């Protein structure tokens, strides 16, 4: 017969429900409730159903601090970003948080700021097992991290201090696919509006653009400097592209592409009838712009989820999960802003 535990004296309906109240409602001992909360497989299915119903009815939540003291686990993961977080992808964070929450973890997002000494001190505190069960970092942690490693650490891709993507995050291979697609539509004369020189992603897109144009025997009429802004796209369209004879423009980002289209349209040049334009990022406005924008979409939410899966695999002692390749994360979306070369 199940032990029935009386309610503690002085209990108030307004107070947070206790494990004792769950036990009383379910008709079991508080030890049985504790075993259920630890997902002990020896709890009988019928008993588990009763406890689960009581937990739900009372809205019971375990005391996280007490649980951490008992299990030495915090049920928290830490996501580390470099100092400047203004340009971090919301989709990346959303995917990481969703995957962590679905696995039963809270996700703490922190940034490493200051000089090397300040970062090292902050990192030392973050790596304490009482504060986190594992660390996912989108920035290099330095050589000291390995020596301090008291919890699992995954470094997925790398951003620098200005949130400029590096490594796999800056992959530009889809540029070649875009140029080949435009060449298949009859285009032979191209122009590129680049991103800032200091950005590895901009460097990569320009490099792959130049390599692919040369490989296919096409002509690059102009490469205009840009800074990710619509203004730079507008100025490139008015000052270079309209007069260089290009029939297709690859812009380093959607925002630049919007400026190119607006600049061309202001001069009576129609897109895509006269010049095709494509971008990169798949900004939502591109789906409603006129014309809608051909672009490269990178699934940052999936990327965030996969990064957390890599960390969870370490935590659980499962086989390693590798990072996702560019082909798995990105795809070309063809829309109205690109079309066959004009022949009349």
Automatic annotation (TrEMBL):
Coiled coil (residue ranges): none
One Pfam short name: Peripla_BP_3
Keywords, sorted A to Z: DNA-binding, Transcription, Transcription regulation
The organism's place on the tree of life at top rank: Bacteria
Gene Ontology molecular function terms on file: DNA-binding transcription factor activity; transcription cis-regulatory region binding
Domain HTH lacI-type, first and last residues per copy: 17-71
PROSITE patterns: HTH_LACI_1, HTH_LACI_2
InterPro entries from the UniProt entry: HTH_LacI (IPR000843), LacI/GalR-like_sensor (IPR046335), Lambda_DNA-bd_dom_sf (IPR010982), Peripla_BP_I (IPR028082)
Stored SUPFAM superfamilies: lambda repressor-like DNA-binding domains (SSF47413), Periplasmic binding protein-like I (SSF53822)
SMART domains: HTH_LACI
Name of the protein this chain belongs to: LacI family transcriptional regulator
């Amino acid at each position: 017969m199940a032990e029935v535990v009386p309610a503690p004296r002085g209990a108030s309906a307004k107070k947070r429900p206790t494990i004792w109240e769950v036990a009383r409602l379910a008709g079991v001992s508080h030890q049985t409730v504790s075993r259920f909360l630890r997902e002990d497989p020896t709890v009988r299915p019928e008993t588990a159903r009763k406890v689960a119903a009581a937990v739900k009815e009372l809205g019971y939540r375990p005391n996280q601090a007490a649980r951490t003291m008992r299990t030495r686990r915090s049920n928290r993961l830490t996501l580390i970003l470099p100092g400047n977080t203004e340009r971090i992808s919301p989709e990346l964070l959303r995917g990481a948080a969703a995957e962590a929450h679905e696995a039963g973890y809270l996700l703490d997002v922190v940034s490493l700021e200051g000089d090397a000494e300040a970062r090292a001190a902050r990192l030392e505190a973050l790596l304490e097992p009482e504060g986190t069960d594992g660390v996912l970092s989108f920035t290099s942690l330095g050589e000291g991290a390995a020596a301090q490693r008291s919890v699992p650490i995954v470094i997925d891709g790398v951003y620098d201090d200005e949130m400029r993507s590096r490594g796999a995050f800056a992959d530009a291979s889809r540029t070649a696919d875009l140029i080949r697609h435009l060449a298949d539509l009859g285009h032979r004369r191209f122009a590129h509006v680049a991103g800032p020189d200091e950005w590895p992603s901009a460097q990569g897109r320009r490099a792959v653009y130049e390599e692919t144009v040369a490989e296919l025997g096409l002509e690059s009429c102009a490469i205009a400097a840009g800074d990710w802004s619509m203004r730079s796209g507008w100025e490139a369209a008015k000052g270079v592209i309209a007069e260089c004879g290009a029939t297709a423009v690859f812009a380093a980002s959607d925002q630049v592409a919007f400026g190119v289209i607006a600049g061309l349209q202001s001069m009576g040049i129609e897109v895509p009838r006269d010049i095709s334009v494509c971008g990169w990022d798949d900004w939502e406005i591109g789906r409603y712009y006129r014309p809608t924008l051909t672009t490269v979409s990178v699934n940052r939410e999936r990327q965030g989820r996969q990064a957390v899966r890599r960390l969870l695999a370490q935590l659980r002692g499962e086989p390693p999960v590798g990072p996702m390749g560019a082909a798995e994360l990105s795809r070309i979306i063809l829309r109205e802003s690109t079309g066959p070369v004009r022949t009349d």
